[in-house]
Amino acid sequence: MHIRRLAALLLGGWLAVSLAVLLLATQNFRTVDRLLKSPPAGAAQAIQNLGQVQARALLRHAASEQNRWSSEAWEEVQLIWGGVLLLVMLWGKHRDLRGLLPAVLMLATVAVMHWFLTPEIARLGRVVDFIPTDQPSPDRTRLWNFHIAYSTAEAVKLLLGAVLAGVLLLHRKSLSGRRERDIAPAVIQD
Fold first, then answer.
1. Which of 137, 139, 138, 135 is nearest to 120 (CA)?
2. Residue 1 in 3-state DSSP?
3. How many of the other CB atoms lie within 10 Å of CB of 172?
4. Cβ-contact 60, 129 below 8 angstroms
5. 45 pLDDT more than 80
6. What is the pLDDT of residues 134-164, one digit of tens each?
């Protein structure tokens, strides 16, 4: 088995699932708006009974809870996934800093997200979920600042993943080229 291929497979899966989780998080809130705009018959009566503002707040809270759970669960999986990727890279002969540094930084970024950003986003989110959107709230401002930090960390992680993918691909090409050059003189000498 080629360790570099296994590392590339793990990295590709990590990046793909990260993008899928981001897409799902945005779709959860869009689903609330779509449901309120054109509710099915059973939901229309419930929305009417609650009132549009209260129904929206309740549905957005449910979407937020789903996003909070998804973020926490995916971060836990990423810590394991990233740890396995790092171990695979250490186990193989790919121990140079060009490959290990982006992997370590990706893992560190997820750790910061999981233990510092996500808990505060969850706490603040639950505080502001039912505060009317037109009412000023210092907690809402703080929540958006944490969301910006989280989005930045996610972008940094994805960028580091792209750098690591490049290192894995370029390392493969340079090794292939070296093997061909090393073999060619041996063939000529025989």
1. 139
2. coil
3. 15
4. yes
5. yes
6. 999 999 999 999 999 999 999 999 999 999 9
Q: Where are the domains of the chain?
A: 3-184
72, 123 Cβ separation under 8 angstroms? no
One-letter amino acid for residue 176 of the chain: S
The 3-state DSSP class for residue 129 equals coil
pLDDT grade for 95, boundaries at 50, 70 and 90: low
* Sign of the dihedral defined by the CA atoms of residues 50, 54, 58, 59, in that order: positive
Q: Assign residue 131 a region: left if phi > 0, alpha if psi is -120 to 50, beta otherwise?
A: beta
- Stronger pLDDT, 91 or 161, i.e. the higher one: 161
- Taken in order 11, 12, 13, 15, the sign of the CA dihedral is positive
